[in-house]
Amino acid sequence: MSKKVTNIGVLTSGGDSPGMNACIRAVVRTGLYHSLEMFGIMRGYQGMIDDDIVPMHSRSVANIIQRGGTILKTARCKEFFEFSGRKKAYENLKKHGIDGLVIIGGDGSFRGAQKFANEFDIPCIGLPGTIDKDIAGTDFTIGFDTAVNTAVECIDKIRDTADAHDRLFIIEVMGRDAGYIALHSGIATGAEHILIPERKTDIEDVISSLEEKEKRKKLVNMIVVAEGDDFGGANEVAKVVKERLATADVRVCILGHIQRGGAPSCIDRLIASRMGYAAVEALLEPTGMHHNHMIGILNNRIHYTPLDKAIKAKQKISDEWMKIVKILAS
Ligand code: ADP
Ligand code: F6P
Q1: Of the residues 131, 176, 281, 322, which has the maximum number of CB atoms within 10 A of its CB?
Q2: Residues forming the active site
Q3: pLDDT of residue 249
Q4: Do 221 and 158 meet the contact criterion of CB atoms below 8 Å apart?
């Protein structure tokens, strides 16, 4: 039996993602349902260190399920990398009586949570909040679906103007060192090429395919490049394409932070709500068997992954996806 958790703190850390607010709401309201004291920690781990911690009530999370960003703000916090920073954070949590933590963030935030949980007696639950979908143990991360739909909307618009001018567009999407946003948005918009960090980019293959398309007068082409692709971003690819295909009318578009904002999609609101609820239930479970785990959703069921495993593993991209890209983009 583990000690009963009575006061829970929730924070958002690392890059924000649409659906974080829906998740905060679910954590707070599930905790209140169980008559727990709930606290919001501002600006991620920075707020733990600065004692920027506020009580949360049912009304504190009213009217936020549909809003992008995070009402708790988020930050990247250097001091939390040091033991002295984490100790200061622990002392502040103790001052408020907080004895359970929910961290909504990416793998970096989980790395911090894992260290903190090993050093101090406050159980942590990680919830995957990142547009990058670069965490194992879950089919979706909170924010990915919205980000990828934003990218699809933008690429569709770019295709309209590309079509009007017979242009070749090279579009860069986010994802840090993961290619999921590129792969999903690229397939969904019929991109002719998708360049991702998980596969070595063969630029000669791209050029010869574009030459072949030019010969048969297929001049409108979209190349979706993940920002972390090994060849470099969209500008690097454009440089080579312009050098080698003198007649192509090439334009570059970098979608950037637009992918992080906006109202969360229905899927993101749903998974955020389910994960937020499951996080509080996991903290309250009497054996504590899921303390210091990340909660994901695999095959539509809640799935628990120890934080250390969630940190190390990445999702894999199957060769079949790459085959689909090739076959469909002729
Ligand atoms: P994300 O969670 O989106 O991957 P970051 O990698 O920027 O974002 O991590 C968010 C924060 O988590 C960092 O600013 C830091 O405070 C904390 N963190 C990340 N890695 C570690 C680590 N190895 N040790 C302690 N804290 C860490
Ligand atoms: O992790 C989310 C993400 O948007 C990545 O896709 C991107 O590489 C990074 O964060 C951008 O970080 P920043 O907001 O600090 O520019």
Answers
A1: 131
A2: 132
A3: 95
A4: no
CB-ligand 2 contact for 129 (6 Å cutoff): no
Query: CATH number for the 7-143+264-310 domain, one of 3.30.559.10, 3.40.50.1000, 3.40.50.450, 3.40.50.300?
Result: 3.40.50.450
Closest residue by CA, ligand 1 atom 18: 112
Please tell me the predicted confidence (pLDDT) of residue 80. 98
Neighbours of 231 (CB within 10 A): 15
Show the low-confidence residues of the chain (pLDDT under 70).
none
Q: Where are the domains of the chain?
A: 7-143+264-310, 147-259
Q: Quote the tokens at residue 97.
A: 């009586």
What is the pLDDT at residue 330?
A: 75
CA atoms of 47 and 199, how far apart (whole Å): 39
> pTM of this prediction?
0.97
Interval between CA 293 and ligand 1 midpoint (Å): 16
Does ligand 1 lie within 6 Å of residue 114's CB atom? no
Output the CA 256–ligand 2 centroid distance in Å: 9
pLDDT at residue number 64: 98
pLDDT score recorded for residue 2: 82
147-259 CATH: 3.40.50.460
- Identify the pLDDT of residue 51: 98
Nearest-atom number in ligand 2 for the CA of 174 is: 6
Sign, Cα dihedral of 213, 218, 219, 221: negative
